[in-house]
Design a protein that fits this description.
By secondary structure, the protein is an alpha/beta fold. The chain has one domain: Roll (2,3-Dihydroxybiphenyl 1,2-Dioxygenase, domain 1), CATH 3.10.180. Helix content is about 15%, strand content about 35%. It has a four-stranded mixed beta sheet, covered by helices on one side. The radius of gyration is 18 Å and the shape is globular. It starts with about 25 loop residues before the first strand and ends with a strand.
Length: about 130
């Protein structure tokens, strides 16, 4: 028997995702408020795993929020795409998010940064 040409054929069903970001986990000081914020602002779906952890699906990527410390300053920036940047900003504000960098232009589009109820800083961008 000849072995597979590469290691991916026998690596299992997720071999195509090798070396790709698979899951994002962020801290949350209040799981309920965090879930409500992301449901209201972006329509994400959640599955609870006990009182101190919830996972989310946004349609393309999955992740989770773990109850614990407040979000640290700095670190990786998670960027969400929106067709309509002004609508996304309105939804973030309406859901209780705090705009920490108002909309600004950059090569390729515009974006703004916001803080969620736990202090995690994320951004939203659009081509327009």
């Amino acid at each position: 028997m000849t072995p597979p040409a590469s290691g991916t054929e026998s690596a299992g069903p997720n071999a195509a995702n090798d070396h790709r970001i698979d899951y994002i986990e962020m801290p949350a000081t209040d799981i309920s408020a965090t879930k409500q914020f992301y449901v209201t602002a972006f329509g994400w779906k959640f599955t609870d795993y006990g009182p101190d952890y919830t996972s989310f699906e946004d349609g393309r990527l999955a992740g989770g929020f773990a109850k614990g410390r407040a979000a640290p300053a700095g670190g990786a920036l998670i960027v969400i795409y929106a067709v309509d940047l002004a609508d996304a900003e309105r939804r973030v504000r309406s859901a209780g998010g705090k705009i920490v960098k108002p909309p600004f232009s950059f090569p390729g589009g515009r974006r703004f940064h916001f803080a969620d109820p736990s202090g995690n800083e994320l951004a939203v961008w659009s081509e327009r």
